[in-house]
Design brief:
The protein is of the alpha/beta class and 118 residues long. The chain has a single domain, classed as ATPase, V1 complex, subunit F (Rossmann fold), CATH 3.40.50.10580. The chain is 36% helix and 18% strand. Helix 1 links the parallel strand 1 and strand 2.
């Protein structure tokens, strides 16, 4: 049976240390009974397959409503991000302290522009 929208009660985040720390301080952190976290801190040593695995895990979880990902991290797994088409969890690319937001790279914005013929 598919998860109900009301079962999706968490945010997940994949991002740099400052972004994840800020969001954890804001209260989004969660560790479930299987010791699975709803966040991944990415640094220069984080391998692409680790980021892709976290993205896959978070997008398959039925308790996550929104997945926030720093845009510069999304660039590392751009083909995977561009393939993602589900409504839930909603995927939002966000800026980080050191990397400003670039609308030209946002997969969701590109899809919307294509939809409206821009």
């Amino acid at each position: 049976m598919a998860a109900s929208i009301k079962d999706r009660e968490f945010l997940a985040v994949i991002g740099d240390e400052d972004t994840v720390t800020g969001l954890l301080l804001a209260g989004i952190g969660h560790v479930n009974q299987q010791q699975k976290r709803n966040f991944l801190i990415v640094d220069s040593k984080t391998q692409v397959n680790v980021i892709e695995d976290a993205f896959q895990t978070f997008t398959e979880r039925k308790d996550i409503a929104i997945l926030l990902i720093n845009q510069h991290v999304a660039e590392k797994i751009r083909p995977t991000v561009d393939k993602y088409q589900q409504a839930f969890p909603a995927l939002l690319e966000i800026p980080s302290k050191d990397h400003p937001y670039d609308p030209a790279k946002d997969s969701i914005l590109k899809r919307v522009q294509k939809l409206f013929g821009e």
